[in-house]
Amino acid sequence: MFHAPALRSWISSSRSPIIMASKSKTHRLHQLSGTALQSIAKRPRTITTESYMKDAFANYAGYLNELNEKRERVVKSSRDITINSKKVIFQVHSRDNKEEVLKKAEADLEAVKDQYISRLVKELQGTDFWKLRRAYSPGVQEYVEAATFCKFCRTGTLLDLEELNAGLLPLSDPAIEPLQINVFDYLLGLADLTGELMRLAIGRISDGELEFAEKICRFSRDIYRELTLVVPLMDNNSDMKTKMDTMLQSVLKIENACLSVHVRGSEYTLLGSSDPSFLMGVPDMQS
Amino acid sequence: MKSAFRNAVALRTLPHYHFINPHFHSLPRFSVAAVSSPPSSLVSPSKPETFRFRRRSSPLRVRYSSMTGGETDAPASMEKQFEDFRVKLDEAGSLRERIRAVVNEIESITRLMHASLLHVHQSRPLSEVLEKPKAQVDGLKELYGRLAEVLCECPGEYYRFHNDWRSETQTVVSLLAFMHWLETGKLLMHTEAEEKLGMNQAEFALDIEDYLIGLCFLSNEMPRYVVNQVLAGNYDCPRKVLRFLTDLHAAFRMLNLRNDFLRKKFDSLKYDLKRVEEVYYDMKIRHLANGDSAEDNGTQGQS
């Protein structure tokens, strides 16, 4: 991916006789230009470009290469975290054998932490947490979503950031700065959680677990309310603001689903849990 | 956002929906505030009697009481956590304001320096042109020192706030590099730039990408400089600038760039080089260039 642009610019600028084979190792580059120097004797002038510039830029090239390669690796591990966290979330929605499923999901969540987050920790090597945040943020957000989701299903409470981060400490070598989820990724992940809670509530209602659905209702309301006070204070909060809109919709859907059940309470037990028609009051406007 | 409200209303909820979230009237930032005025045509109370009756019964009490704030729904731990967040984010917010204050000062000095340097296009003597800007470099150094102090209060968060001073720093680098070139004909090195600005501390250094982008801004000034120098009769200038830009361009080509802002700036460097070449070529073929020696055939023969 790095090679193409440098190569293209070489081809388009046909003036330089120096063959810049765009390799990533800078010292090899030096050797190359050295041999080119000797072979193209008829134009010594253009090749005696200032060596102080070349030396300096060789360093800059090394720095950029390292940074970009690190960034790539971080992105890749972030993607792995995303995919596997999504799998955990998906499992929890399962309607059969809920207790077993939850246990397995929790085990898988631990595996995400032990395998994929630890990989991220390794790639970051205790530095550039803020510099490379854009590279790993999506993965971390998804993980936060999965972890808080499982915790809620298990205990009905919110997994807080401190506890979540305490769990990550053992992954890092004590000699280096540990990877800790920052407040922004936590809040962004929390915003996505309400979407999943909405799906869960609707699912549980059709399984007849009304109390749990009401619990979800109160919980999501609380999260939403707390977030409204915090979001205006966040730096660069435009994506968070969009999430707040979506979150409100999820909360509305949950509330209305609960309402339908309350209003039709007695009718519901007559209809039985297999009849989805009682959910008529909650059309899925935006699937 | 209207769609969310339309959903809510179409779900046959109470027409008084807008009372539910009183917060939003005071938080205009959220488009949810638009929820406050429902178009009455969308309200379809097909069972008004039932709803009004239900409203007084217990199942809905929870919602109303949380509206009046009579119940604390959220468990204490959740409240505490978010309270902590608010405090921390508030602190970060005020830190950011202080950073912006320093950056605004940097920006005004930069503007003054730039305006002084523009005299170079009107072929004032170099020493005169450079006098004021050079004096202002110390002011810049002091400001960057203050920036470093502010950042010292949040160790490790240089890049968290980086975007707040990024573009101003790039401009500063380009001005310093231009001044350096005018004086010495050489390229300002990254370490030299850091020293001039006092940015050579462990926690507070000059980001290399900012430095490189600054160099590209420098090259953007070159074509205009060359044109104006030729107009003023300085026929030696194009050759010197051409050599400089060719070297710079060749040096930049050593970098493996991804498709980001730096890459775009590097592309503009190419066009600057091309433009300077054209000026030089025009002069050359009319034998206007000084030092028209055999060795210059090398550079000229490529286009």
TrEMBL record, chain A:
Signal peptide: none annotated. Keywords: Cytoplasm, Nucleus. It is found in: Cytoplasm; Nucleus. SUPFAM superfamilies: Translin. GO terms for molecular function: sequence-specific DNA binding. The keyword Cytoplasm applies. InterPro entries: Translin_C, Translin_fam, Translin_N, Translin_sf. One of its GO terms (cellular component) is cytoplasm. It holds the Pfam family Translin. Belongs to the translin family. This is Translin-associated protein X. It comes from Citrus sinensis. The lineage of its organism: Eukaryota, Viridiplantae, Streptophyta, Embryophyta, Tracheophyta.
From TrEMBL, chain B:
InterPro entries: Translin, Translin_C, Translin_fam, Translin_N, Translin_sf. GO terms for biological process: RNA metabolic process. Belongs to the translin family. It is found in: Cytoplasm; Nucleus. GO terms for cellular component: cytoplasm; nucleus. GO terms for molecular function: RNA binding; sequence-specific DNA binding; single-stranded DNA binding. This is Translin. Keywords: Cytoplasm, DNA-binding, Nucleus, RNA-binding. Its main location: cytoplasm. It comes from Citrus x changshan-huyou. It holds the Pfam family Translin.
